[in-house]
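Lab notebook, design round three. We kept the backbone fixed and only want residue identities now. Task for the bench partner: fill in a sequence for the structure below.
Input structure tokens:
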């Protein structure tokens, strides 16, 4: 199934270049926009699978556009593509509903993979940014409310949840935990039911907001 993409950036040459590169890689470019207001209006009309969103768009920011698009188009996912890797920018984008965050220094291959994974429902971040967001939420987390009834997850479900939040695919999680791909999907579906969530993006956001984290393993 072809993934439909809308590219939003205030620099025409960059916008057209990214759109052309993605189209050559097999994505369907259904629209482009150069400002936040146009992005929201056009997204409502074309309903793309993925909106590739810049942050610096003028009076209304990409964060504003992200919030409006994700609020009104639940089936459309937003992947931020920004020159900024600043912690605050990443945090605000995720809070607004972005499924992931990629910096513009990413390679073409990384961008193609990120768009594909975002369309598939994964939370995708440039290396290191997911850990920053998780750490910030962990520091900001309020004291737990003992009166609030919390869903009971198994140790394995919690472990899978943490890896989902770090942006790993189901197959990567299976390899990391030495279990089958199907077992990972079963844990994901069980966790979604318990938390009353709908997809892996919401699952990753839940983990971030609740400060769930795991010490990153050394890269092999």
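Proposed sequence:
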């Amino acid at each position: 199934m072809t993934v439909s993409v809308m590219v939003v950036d205030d620099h025409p040459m960059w916008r057209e270049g990214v759109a052309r590169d993605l189209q050559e890689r097999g994505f369907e470019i259904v629209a482009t926009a150069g400002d936040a207001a146009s992005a929201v209006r056009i997204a409502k009309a074309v309903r793309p699978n993925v909106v590739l969103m810049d942050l610096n768009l003028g009076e209304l920011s990409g964060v504003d556009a992200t919030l409006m698009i994700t609020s009104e188009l639940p089936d459309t996912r937003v992947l931020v593509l920004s020159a900024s890797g600043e912690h605050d920018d990443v945090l605000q984008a995720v809070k607004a509903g972005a499924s992931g965050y990629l910096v513009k220094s990413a390679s073409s291959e990384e961008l193609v993979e990120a768009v594909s994974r975002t369309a598939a429902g994964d939370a995708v971040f440039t290396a290191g940014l997911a850990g920053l967001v998780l750490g910030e939420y962990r520091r900001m987390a309020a004291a737990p409310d003992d009166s609030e009834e919390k869903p009971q997850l198994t140790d394995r479900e919690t472990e899978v949840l943490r890896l989902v939040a770090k942006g790993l695919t189901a197959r990567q999680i299976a390899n990391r935990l030495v279990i089958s791909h199907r077992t990972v999907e079963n844990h994901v579906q069980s966790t979604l039911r318990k938390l009353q969530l709908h997809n892996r993006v919401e699952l990753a956001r839940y983990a971030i907001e609740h400060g769930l984290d795991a010490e990153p393993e050394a890269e092999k």
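Keep this in mind before ordering anything: The two ends are 33 Å apart (CA to CA).
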